[in-house]
């Protein structure tokens, strides 16, 4: 690698890191505010809150990497032009293609990083997020318990526990649940104890009764028991979201080829699989298009705002096209072909145009 190639790559690296983590940091703060409710209402630990929100970072990286790469290349190229460094390279016989190739190689490394996030980090972090979110919700009841006080902070559940012995045995328990829209359930027990098994919270009740009120016929049923196991606490909507398959929690191969999805949801999972493959590839199209417009008029004082406007317009057009085809792909898989062609044709056309302009420049001195 030549000295100027190493220099340009180093000039790209630091802005890329700063811009990427700045955008991700802002998005992370905005997203984290949504989960403050876990700390405030569910009694979760600050460490759990930090760990939970950290699992959002791979998803944010997956979304913003093409955009941060665009701003990195734009900033670095304009800075090198403003400092006359690219003009100096031209005077030493370095071609426009050679300079564009350096930016393209850096973009390819950024794309490979993006694929690492898409293929590995994203499903791992999403599964960890869902598991921890469910565990926090399940354990929130323990953190919220106030003895000798009625507690109704957990959605659909009211709890009263008189006291707790030294061996964590709970005394004189009352639990009323209205989580099931078809019936209300009330438990009264002389004692009980919490157990955490397989990340699920269970309460074993001893010597009590279970009273059910069916809303449809207004009939009561009473059952007495010596021992009863309760294993459903917290927000049932959260529990349902954990069991529901999340496209981000699955690998790309599973998204594209698995036949285990419901028939009506299969197009959504297929589209997500193609998007996870194509969104990193879009970075190359974005960078190549921008470089084409920026290299058309390379005298900083004379190029004005046109190349910048064209570069940002190309960014918006490519992103909008990718998202539109991704949406259309939910209904017709033929649009996936257009998504792949978009990311092949654009770099190819730009490379041909750059080669032609460089050849013409050499022929005309």
Highlighted features:
365 residues, alpha+beta, 6-stranded antiparallel β-sheet, 12 helices
Descriptive overview:
- This protein is α+β, with helices and mostly antiparallel strands and 365 residues long.
- It has two domains: 3-139 and 242-363, no CATH class; 156-233, no CATH class.
- It is 63% helix and 16% strand.
- It has twelve helices and six strands.
- The protein has helices spanning 3-34, 36-42, 46-54, 57-82, 85-91, 96-144, 236-243, 252-257, 266-294, 300-303, 306-328, 335-363; strands spanning 150-151, 157-164, 170-177, 183-197, 200-214, 219-230.
- The chain has a six-stranded antiparallel beta sheet.
- A hairpin with a 5-residue loop joins strand 3 (170-177) and strand 4.
- Helix 9 packs antiparallel against helix 11 (306-328), helix 9 (266-294) packs parallel to helix 12 (335-363) and helix 11 (306-328) runs antiparallel to helix 12.
- The protein is elongated.
- The chain crosses the membrane at residues 12-35, 55-77, 98-122, 277-295, 307-329, 335-355.
- It is a multi-pass membrane protein.
- This is ABC transporter permease.
